[in-house]
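Dear support,

I submitted the protein below through the web form. The confirmation email said the job was done, but the results page showed an empty box. After a refresh the structure appeared. I'm attaching both so you can tell me whether what I see now is the final result or a partial one.
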Amino acid sequence: MREVTATGPSVEEAVESALAQLNISREQAEIEVKDEGKKGFFGLFGTRPATVFVKKINNPFDEVKKYLISVSNMMGIDVEIDIKVDGRHAEFQLAGEKIALLIGKRGQTLNSLQHLAGLVANRYSEQFLTVVLDAENYRERRRQTLASLAERLAEKAVRTNRKVSLEPMPSYERKVIHSALVRSKKVETFSEGSEPNRYIVIEPKRK
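What the results page shows now:
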């Protein structure tokens, strides 16, 4: 239950009733007073209770944290999560003894979790939010690996004078490849295919 209409002898008591029903604090609530009520003659005749509408305010990133903890626990992982929020963007740093299980081969598990985390965040938001998951600085290590890979494959494309296609990657990893070669005078890069199988092609520039 995320919203409720409650009544009480006073506005304050009606609000307290609503908060109790929703099991939330006042800080988590959006309160709208529908009717302030009316005290009757001698407190008996013409009495009208106060009516309030209270809606639970969900913090999308808090919901993401709950989701990640739930998934991690199901995988037998005790995870610690630090969140850095910058407007509509949030970066979640995951840590724990078995964190490698959350990263997976070439970050595939982490990427899948990131996709799902983004869906969770936007389910609770009226504005589009972006979510990035990282674990033990994996993203930076992966970025360095991809940048080196881009250079090697660019050399191969030039040496063989043929296109080189990379494996499918999420958009932010493709950006690393594009950025690494954007100033190259020998090759150009472009993406082909449809998500989630979109991939980068490195092609020698025509002279």
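Response: this is the final, complete result; the empty box was a page-load delay. The chain has a mean pLDDT of 90.
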